[in-house]
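Progress narrative, work stream C.
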Amino acid sequence: MTCCHVINEKEIHGPPFHYVPGTSPASARARKQSDRSVLRAADASAYERVIDVLVSSGIRSIELTLTTPGTLEALPHLLHRTGTEIGIGTVACVAEAEQALDAGAGFLVTPSPRHQR
């Protein structure tokens, strides 16, 4: 069983990042936003039309998963086009986090194990 943890660009541990408590407006919105849509598709080319509908319906926080081919390549265009907060999910390592942040991700979601008691 897994759960997710929303982090921002300043909360990544380990080289080459140093921990700085998150204070960015994007991360604050991501933590408070109850209406976040998570999108997965066969290919990132399917995102644009779906995001248009979500944004016109009032959704202001969208997570795109790395399980969809082409997500990081599509992110800069989608951010510029929509002006909404878009984060990247299924981030499993520091290299993926760096790539997502370089592409403009507003937040990251990482799978993490849920500890059984």
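Work stream C, second folded protein:
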Amino acid sequence: MDKIFNCKTYDKLSNNNFQYYKFKSRRNTYIYIPIINNNIVISSLNLYNPSNIIKKIYKNLLMNALNFLDVKYLFRNKINANLNTDILECIDNVENYKYAAIYTGTPGNTSKYTIQLMDDKGDILGYAKVPKGKKSSVFISKEKENLEYVNNLNLERCKLPNLLYFDNKSNILVQSTIIGLEDVNNKLTQNIIDFLIEINHKTYNRVDLKESEFYKKAIYMIDNYPENIKSRISKSIYHLCEVYKLKDISYCFSHKDFTPWNIKKSENFIYVFDWEMSGYTPMYYDIFNYIYFVEILVNKSSVKTVIDNILNNKYIECYEEQTCRYNRKAMLIIYIIELIYLYKEDLNQEFDNIIINKAIEVLDLLII
């Protein structure tokens, strides 16, 4: 936490010094909550976004308890610290900023700190993202570009963060948010489908299969990956070209980490955030991704169930009716290969990563 906190120069006279509680979010990740008052603590817990239903219940119980119990009775493990100067220089650009809660980020090569910025009442003003290393620095810089691009699309079916500040030297990014939003559940909704249809319409492009970025990635994987992977990719390409007779594929701009934990909602719209991984992909990517990650990580479903829920999904049918229709099994093969490439090349994951392993199992059933 040295990049975030400066504990050695703690100064009781500084307005930047607070006591923080170290709240365990999930395995090896923590939220540092400023112990100011109950409103600030409740607001800080917005950084805790469990997908597991039991942990969601725990979060609700904890937030309800804070309406009746003084914060000092619930949080005992405290540290005294202040935010480092380079971070303060960035977040001080946010009007009415007073307090910050810090999420340490999911471990990995692209891990980053996320700082929730609050005013003196606990209202959330925005979020700052601080890179931990070179890879996360690249992703945060990419998010700046992606936010500028996607905001220029003038989407009507969803709302997006606005870029408030970006420091070119440290690659610290500060973006806006919208207060009062709710978590989405793990099921697709018509509002989500309407957003995916709209972004497809505004960014749609059809390309020859063998000229596509997907095909280039597949050939790279055949040339460079271990034998057990390259043989599956080769067989997949055979299926796409010879079995499904695929000549071209449609691309659109995609979030690429489109999951319930990167979406909030109100009664009238959805709010989509964390755009650092986004870019142009074969269509269906985001809608497949939403179902795939819920089934694999939340529901712990079998790969057969994953495939069945994608191939027999009424919302995907609606998506196809208003975009264009390809053989869904062929597009699922393409999505799985894109996912393996993303996790291996862009996220630098090992081949024994759970997402890659499950993706390979799905691919095996699709190319029997």
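Confidence is low (pLDDT under 50) at residues 8-15. No further action is required on this item.
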